[in-house]
Amino acid sequence: MHFFGSKHEMFVSAMQLPIDPSRFITELSQPGIDGLGDRVVRRFIGVWDSPEGRHLVGLFRSVVSHDTAATLMREFFTHAILGRVARSFDVDQPRRRASLVASQLFGLALVRYVLKLEPISSASAEELAAWVGPTVQRYFTTDLRALGVPSGRARARS
Fold first, then answer.
1. How far apart are CA 12 and CA 23, in angstroms?
2. Of 30, 38, 62, 74, which has the fewest CB atoms closer than 10 Å, so is most exposed?
3. CA distance linking residue 137 with residue 85, whole number of Å
């Protein structure tokens, strides 16, 4: 904390992130919840496709194979970034919503940048936003209780 000022800044430095994704929270949230899924997918792909984002593929591979790195990335991305976006709207279960969105985005990153599955790997950000954005939007806006998702912590099943 002495050297970085906050846990957030320490994470950005430790993970060697080329940019701080939290700087996009206002850009994503400010226009309102309508179209949020599209904006999130466009920004996510825009960052990964940028020259600064090329480093993220190697980081993603290490996250997949290293438990500590995975924990750090999960906590940072789902709580500090997507959780803040979800909490900026009046929605129930923002943490769960952020985790659902993260599942889509990390899956998209795996398929596009590591597995290079077509047509995902060669699609434009606009195409991906059209294909994946509605699912991300649903995670932010659907009444989770109507889907049978309990409002409390889900119990582990044996």
1. 12
2. 30
3. 12
Rounded CA-CA distance 144/92 in Å is 8
- What is the per-residue pLDDT across 108-129, written as a single tens digit (0 to 9) for each? 999 999 999 999 999 999 999 9
* Structural domain contains residue 117: yes
73 near 63, Cβ under 8 Å?
Answer: yes
Number of domains the chain is built from? 1
Three-state SS at 48: helix
pLDDT tens digit sequence for 72-92: 777 777 777 788 888 888 888
- 13 lies in a domain? yes
CATH of the domain at 46: 1.10.357.10
First to last CA, the chain: 40
12 within domain boundaries: yes
Does 82 fall in a domain?
Answer: yes
User: Distance of CA 125 to CAs 10, 43, 67, 71, 149, Å?
Assistant: 30, 8, 30, 28, 31
Domain containing 125: what range?
7-144
Question: Which of 132, 135, 15, 117 lies closest to 75 in space, CA to CA?
Answer: 15
